[in-house]
Amino acid sequence: MSEQSYEDFISTVSHELRTPLTSIRGFSQTMLASWDKLDDESKKKFLKIIEEQSNRLISLVENMLSVTKLQSSKENLVYREVDIKPVINTVVQIVKNQYPNHKFEINMHPQTPEIFVDRDKFQQVMMNLIENAAKYSYDNSTIKIESCGCDNCEFASIKITDEGIGIPENDYETIFQKFSRIDNPLTRKVQGSGLGLYITKNIVEKMNGKISVVSKQINNEKFETTFEVKLPSYSVEHQAEEKCRQ
Ligand SMILES: Nc1ncnc2c1ncn2[C@@H]1O[C@H](COP(=O)(O)OP(=O)(O)OP(=O)(O)O)[C@@H](O)[C@H]1O
Ligand SMILES: [Mg+2]
What we know:
The chain has 246 residues and is an alpha+beta fold. It has helices at 3-33, 40-71, 84-98, 119-135, 185-189, 196-206, 236-245, and strands at 79-82, 103-108, 115-118, 142-148, 155-164, 210-217, 223-232. The model has no long low-confidence stretch (mean pLDDT 90).
């Protein structure tokens, strides 16, 4: 990392850490100073904010650790054949809990091949994309997760589609950069560090895959946004290699 980008990184990180910490300190101080004057409802509201801001700090620190690991060549990925469906089911269960007012539709093509990836990293990729789909779309809307493939094809494709605030074509590339968030009133309302897609793209490319996005306007306030991830299938070749080793 160059000195300039290192300085930019440190100043962005400090800012991102300072905002939730300031609010945690502020609400704790208010509660301590005015405990007897506050009604139960206000206390609950303040504690909820403290909890949310602590969660924000935890996910920021986790994301920053992922970025640091990505930059070191020491991180070893463990490649093996992975069945896509159970991973997606697990991730959808987790995201559903966080976003109970969204609907999730999973549609796996019967010929979807197994993929040759690091299972945990693949789960992290699905988590980031499905979480984003829920985060940047509206309550009661549907998030679709589809896979397709064919016998002996080189890649399996997984598409995650939401109906939400959308992404302007100008931002198709910038959203994958470190700390980048699209600035609009709706994004400002939801928390995020702008690291999720940077990490996701890095992991996908490390696993010899590709990621792309397309966002189409469907009416005045809604866009249909699809992220597509292509990952190498656990092809006939790999199976042959395995047999030779046995
Ligand atoms: N499905 C989506 N629909 C609309 N905008 C999206 C979608 N996914 C990502 N974005 C935009 O891309 C930006 C970058 O996404 P990214 O996941 O990297 O960061 P984040 O969600 O803001 O924070 P975090 O690091 O917690 O994931 C988001 O802030 C948002 O503006
Ligand atoms: Mg995100």
